[in-house]
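re: that chain from earlier
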Amino acid sequence: MARDRQRAKQRKARRAQQHPGPAPSQPYRADMCPLLSSLLPLAGTSGILGVSLSGAGPAVLVIVEGETEIAAASQAILGAMENLCAPSLLICRFEEAGANQSLRPE
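^ sequence. v structure.
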C-alpha cells in the first residue's frame, strides 16, 4: 500500500517535470549525445517514468516504474535505437531502505 502511494507520487513528480523535447538544461548538451533526442520521447511510455542525460553525458539515464516494466522499457529503448547503435543497458535498482551503516571511523 505504501509502496503504491510512493510510486504514484513518483509518477506525478516525473509528469510535472516532463517537457515536450529536451528539458531546459539539456538542449546544449544534446550534441554530445545524439541518442538523447531518440530516447526522450519514451518518457511516459512502456513503464518509463523519465529520460535524462546522466551527469555530463554521454550516458542516458532512464528511470523505470518497477521490476515488471524492465522488459517493456528495454524493448522500447532497443526499438528507438534500432538504426543508431547497439546500446549497453545496465539495470540498477534503488534501495528502499537506504544506507544503514556509517562509513565514518568512530
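Confidence is low (pLDDT under 50) at residues 19-24.
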